[in-house]
Amino acid sequence: MSSNKIRGGALLARALKEKGVEHAFTLAGGFCNPALEGFMETQTPVINCPHEQIAGHLADGHSRITRKPTVCLVGPEGFANAVPAMLEAGGERSPVIFVTGSSTLKRQGAGGFKEIDDVAIAAPLVKYSAQITDGERISEFVDRAWIAATSGYPGPVHLSLPVDIMFSSFDEDAGRAERPYKRHHQLPARAWPEPAALTQILSLIENAKRPVMIGGHGVWWSGAEEKLAATCAKLRIPVYNIPYHQKLLGQHSEAYMGLADFHQFHPSKPAIQEADVVIMVGGRLDNQMNFGNPPFFPESQTLICINGSHEEVEFNRAADSLLLSDPGAFFDALGTLNKKWSSWFDLQLQRRTTWIDEWTDHLTQEDAKGGKMHPLQLSVDVQNAMKKDDWLVFDGGNTHFWSEIGVSIAASKGAQFAGISHPGSYSLLGVGVSLAISAKAIHPEKTVVLISGDGAFLSGGLSIEAAFHEKLPIVVVIDNNGGLDCISQQQERLFTSGKHFATDFRDIPFHTMIEGMGGYGELVETREQLAPALKRAIASGKTACLNVKCKGVISPIVAATSDKRDKASIE
């Protein structure tokens, strides 16, 4: 054993570096100083954030884009602030390693300074949550957490390192006398389909007359999105993304039709309900899929679920047929079929074109009325003004939903982006600025534009300080309708009085806020002002804000929810 002594926090940092961690995020606290010293010595970049929740969202954003684990390091009180980020990362299956520098182990249960049962609180939100009670086992627990985060269906994990272990000294090779002697990152194990089960599934698909493919998170995290696109384009099977997952396939993919969401993408309803076979790969039969039940999936059709982990297969027990398989391996096998569904495929293309034309005509009529911009028009105009390979982020309630529709309309006119990011399945407001900063940090040469609702910006706008501090300029376009419009519009339809309550904002000068921080800001009150203002904001080279006064217009999915129409995406 080595006679060189280092602190437990440095052992932690070295173990994470050995695994391949490239980024860490924190709000620096005294409980975490030994780990921060370790990150400094291992030359691991650390971004200090204005709030622990922001640190968690930045780590999540980095993981979503790179598909690699990142670290969010917090103190015990900061752990409570980071809990919402755990929720968001879990919804997106993002392999963030949350580390708490926790209260002293030797006085556990006696009311130690800042004592909190972080392991129990984190457990329902992450794949793995554990406290390290022996400094000799720090590297072992990092190894266990890493494997949990990256295996099967990836997801966040949590490690708690008590402050007395964090500061205590250990041999620098502590715990390395047992296998595995080398604890670097290894490719995660993947499931290959059982031949007989695969043959049965392929036979069901081959005999289908109207098949539909729904792609979920598992496709993205397994890196199989290009195989999905190529296979379904070859076989002429229409593809739909699960809601809240725009980044899986973009409109540049010939087979991609839109979201599997009856309200946000109307053409998906006849496609899914007329299909005789639906193949969902890497997704879950949760509320977004109406738990696999009618009217979303008619009783007469065959519903097939393919997942890369046994946990997801067990979750999808409602399916008619199940297959445990890595998505890429399944697409390889599916591509061997000698069949095409061209007329069915072309019908979905035509339905998409008709739907886009209808929305385009609607926007033309709205624009002719004058006054404030329609929020969908705002999203479409921003996207049309962006360049190919820029990054698009959106955040909010109605703003998010309108922007999802805007992606399809802008893409029909040729818009293509390097990536799209937004809140995940929990629809957590306020993550947009953090996700935009993550995109800019990983792709500093790209322009990153965030379209954010005013309520969403108020929820997480403080994170924009990280953009200034790290010199990562982003452009924020705020859909300013003066309140929590997504909620107030539901209230108007649900409350007996027809009024809304506790949802209005004062007239907030978001643009001057950003100017005061050293950025660029403009107030935009008409559609004609938007495009030149966006050009000036991008050209400024600064973190910028366009404060755009928009109409409050209820989005189709919120209208469906409050009007209690068809179940789809929201219960």
Radius of gyration: 24 Å
Q: Flag low-confidence runs.
A: 565-571
CATH architecture of the largest domain: 3-Layer(aba) Sandwich
In percent, how helical is the residue content? Answer: 40-55%
The CATH class of the largest domain is: Alpha Beta
CATH topology of the largest domain: Rossmann fold
Tell me what the structure shows.
The chain has 571 residues and is of the alpha/beta class. It has 3 domains: 5-168, Rossmann fold (3-Layer(aba) Sandwich); 195-349, Rossmann fold, CATH 3.40.50; 370-563, Thiamin diphosphate (ThDP)-binding fold, Pyr/PP domains (Rossmann fold), CATH 3.40.50. The protein is built from 23 helices and 20 strands. The chain has a 6-stranded parallel beta sheet, with helices on both faces. Strands 11-10-9-12-13-14 form a 6-stranded parallel beta sheet, sandwiched between helices. Strand 2 (24-26), helix 2 (33-41) and strand 3 (46-48) form a beta-alpha-beta unit. Helix 1 packs parallel to helix 6. The protein is globular, with a radius of gyration of 24 Å. The chain starts with a strand and ends in an 8-residue tail after the last helix.
